[in-house]
C-alpha cells in the first residue's frame, strides 16, 4: 500500500516549532515506523525541515519536500491546484492529513484528523484572516474525506453536529502519552539544548530552578492564546496567595501563540509578579523535569479536543487540576480535580485543596498514573493503520 501523509506541520525540535497538532503528528509517525515496515509511506515536509533528525524512519518511509506558499488568497488557491496535481502523480492508495484540511479537488481515498472545532464556536479566540480555512478548506475536507479521525468523542460529536456527517464515517482514536520509561529513550534532538528565541519576560529554567530551590511551584504548559484562560489562572494564583502560608511559585511554559498581550499585562501588573515565571518554549527534557517536580499541574482551558499535557503530568505522578470541559471529562475520567474555568475563586479553591490536602493529592496521583495506562502512541498508530487499510478497500 502507498500511503501519503502531510507532514508540513510536524514538530520541529530544532527550531522550537509546533505544539499540539505537531506533537500528535510526530509521535504518530514515530510509532507507525515501529509497527509498519511493509507499506510504503510518502511523507511531505516543508522545505527547510531537517528530516535527518527523524532517525527512527526506516527505508519504506520516503521523505518528500513541499514548499508552501505565503501570500494572498489567490496564491494559496493556486498552491492547492499544484498540491492536488503532485499527489495525483504519486498514485497513492490513501492520503492522510493529520491537521484538518485536504488539498482541494483531491479525489483519492483520504483521511483527515480533526482535533477540535473551537474556531467555529469562538472565532474571537483565534487569529484573524481564517476565512479560507474555516469557510472552504475545513468544511470541504471533512465532507469529502473517505474517513475522519476524531481525537475524542467530544470532537466527534462536534463534527456530527456542525457538518452533519454520519457517525460511521468518523472514528475516535485517542492520542498517546509517553511514560517515564518511554521518555528515557527519546533520541531525535528532543533532549538537546538549543539557543532559544527571546520572548517577553522569559526566564532560563536552570536559573529559575536554582533561584527557587526547594520552594514549591504549580505548573502550566500551554501555547499562549486566549482559550488557555491564563489571565483567570493568574488571578486565581493571586487570590490563593492570601491563604497559602508557604512560599509558592507559578511557572508558565509554552511558546507564544496569538492575542497573548493580555496575559503578559496580567503578569506584569500582578502583585505576585515576583513569583510568576514565564520560561517560554521548552524541550521535552525540560518539560518532564518541570512536570516531575511540580506540586500541581494546572490546565483550565475554555475548550480543547483532547488535552495531552494533562496526561503527561499524570505520567510524572503530578496531580492535575483541570477545567470541567467535555473533552477533559472524557479523557481524564475521575483522575483529575475539576473546576469551573470561568470561576476564579473555584480555581483558587481547587489549587488550595490540592496543595494542602496530602491525602487528596496522593489520591489524584494514583488515579492519574492508572489513567495514563489507557493511552499509548502504539495503540494510536495501530488503530490509524487499520483505518488506512479500510480506506484503501473502500
UniProtKB/TrEMBL annotation:
Keywords recorded for this protein, A-Z: Transferase
Record Gene3D superfamilies: Glycogen Phosphorylase B (3.40.50.2000)
This protein's record includes keyword Transferase: yes
Domain Glycosyl transferase family span(s) in chain numbering: 210-371
Alphabetical GO biological process terms: lipopolysaccharide biosynthetic process
A Gene Ontology molecular function term of the record: glycosyltransferase activity
Domain of life (superkingdom): Bacteria
Signal peptide: none
Residue ranges of every copy of the Glycosyltransferase subfamily 4-like N-terminal domain listed in the record: 20-177
Name by which UniProt lists this protein: Glycosyl transferase family 1 domain-containing protein
